[in-house]
Amino acid sequence: PSTAAVSRAMLPDAANPAGNVHGGTILSMVDEAGWTAATRYMNQKHTKDAKPACASLARIEKVDFLKPMFIGEIAEVTAQVTHTSPHSIEVEVNVVAENVMTGQKRTTNRARAWYVSKEFRNGGNADPVMAVPRMKYASEAEMQAGLARYEKQKQSRTCHHRPPDKSRDDRDTIASQHPVEEGDATLIHVLHPSDCHANGVAQAGAVLKLMDTAAGVVSVRHCRSNAVTASLEAVDFMLPLYNGDLLEIAARPVFTSKRSMDVEVNVYAQSLNKETKSLAATSIFTFVSLDRSYRVQDVPAFEPRTDSQRARFELGLKRYETRKAER
Description:
single chain, alpha+beta, Thiol Ester Dehydrase, Chain A, 6-stranded antiparallel barrel, 13 strands, 24% helix, Thioestr_dom, Cytosol_ACT, hydrolase, HOTDOG_ACOT, long-chain fatty acyl-CoA hydrolase activity
């Protein structure tokens, strides 16, 4: 199976206010390694007459930030193709931080991503996804395990973990110490060539970093402290994004427990030749609050006031209880 490795020194420009490596930076490297492995797989038997293929992230499973990564350390990100379906490629990604002074290494993140592939064309294309060559497995058990993961993620994509989106005009207007509506954040970003692959299709990692940034703004506003990413739920990319597209990344708090908060992030995309915008990606990011000694501290609670907010809060409580049961 195709593999890929990304190694990078973590410099100050990758830091969050707490001094750790920005969660979005790690997510971007995860996609970079995963994209490389998937694209290599699609082109491993390239011939003169074959159409060049370029992978695109369709879904990334839930990602946990197991341990922090610090500035000055080396991030080693490895990716390997672990399963294929007729039209998708599963890639397993591991992130390791190395302290070059001591030589010690520790795993900071694990991720599982699903890619589709299209013919490589400058400016992208709307062609159907390409057929994926069948992977050769070491054993029948390995193939069956991969098939089970494929069916599980396929079923998960049909289940929405939040109620249908309603008008943002339903925000609560009752003042409180941490009113929900005041904690919202919206980032506006135009996709540049630096955000895209060579064919003009946006790098999913660049979008994930923007999502993490928007969620981070919400968490800092609400907690009035440094806050860091603890995890994110699975992200489905519903449509391709291109160089020049206008993105609106809307984030809002939906749940708090004693020591964590969930932030819902929706990415809306609008091409320059269209008047309407479409939902491109959505996820839930979980953050923890840090005190001045960078220790986890309690999160200020809020009470939702509208039916829509209460529905999202109830879903957040269910996610929280599920996470506790899985520990």
